[in-house]
Design brief:
3 helices; about 160 residues; 60s Ribosomal Protein L30, Chain: A; globular
Length: about 160
């Protein structure tokens, strides 16, 4: 993506989010915390998800089993599957489903796993797919290989 296209994308994203966080009456929208025992509890000072306006922001989910709190060992498929199950549980706790996700960001410690994670995603998402960004980073919490965050729209 060219730099001018990246800048336009960033500006459109900021505009979209700001239009959904503030009413035309100009007061800041209240926020509601979304939490469920069917997804891992936060391992730091953050919430599983926050709803404000007509958007729900799901914090980055890593492959933790919500029942045991343990990292899901195994393949990248196993880890990505657990992450998406965690996101699905948070969506359900908010009264929504994966089909309501409008944007996801995937963090991978090895971009070589990109195609594998794509295949896992096909089992969870149907067209029209959410917007997405995928980024390779040097490390993730607890040494896992994948983390995904999401934005859910409550319109629709």
């Amino acid at each position: 993506m060219r730099n001018s296209n990246k800048l336009l994308f960033i500006l459109c994203t900021i505009s979209f989010i700001s239009n959904n966080l503030y009413s035309e009456d100009s007061k800041k929208m209240p926020k509601e915390i979304i939490s469920t025992d069917n997804a891992p509890q936060a391992i730091g000072p953050y919430s599983q998800a926050v709803k404000t306006g007509n958007l729900i922001f799901i914090s980055g989910q890593i492959p933790l089993d919500p029942k045991t709190g343990d990292i899901v060992d195994g393949s990248i498929e196993d880890q990505a599957t657990q992450v998406l199950k965690n996101i699905e549980s948070i969506c359900e706790a908010a009264g929504h489903g994966l089909e309501d996700i409008v944007k996801i960001t995937i963090f991978l410690t090895d971009l070589g796993n990109f195609a594998i994670v794509n295949e896992v995603m096909k089992g969870y998402f149907k067209e029209p797919y959410p917007a997405r960004a995928t980024v390779e980073i040097s490390a993730l919490p607890l040494g896992v290989n994948v983390e995904i965050e999401a934005i859910v729209s409550t319109n629709g």
